[in-house]
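Below is the data:
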Amino acid sequence: MATAQDSDPAVSVCFVVTIDDIELGSFNTCEGLGCEVVLEAREEGGNNGHVWQLPTRLKYSNVKLSRPLTRETEKVARWFATMTTGFSRKTAHIEARTGDGRKVAQWGLLEVVPVRWTGPSFTPESPKVAMETIEIAHHGYVMEG
């Protein structure tokens, strides 16, 4: 019998990110997890009733992760700094956890490449929490148990 705890949706979630042996810490938001089938339109001679839509490949969107600035920002800076001396593509793991630390879901991203780091904007007119965002590209998902 399922309890309310087992079936509750993950309302308050954090995303723990690990890239091979590098733990980047927890993030508040995660955007862009998904993929799209790219279709190629083909017309058939003599058949004017429709155009064939043929699947050709999968296209993966970049993933953006954001959080308030913390000491874990140093880990992100170190990871980005390794790109200047050459790098090997790594596998990233994004684990969604509830507020009490229970794993809700996990995604493995293949051949991760860092795309962008955006730091906080400081303005005296609007005091807000200092946020950082990282954006990563990948070449597909690996399913894990």
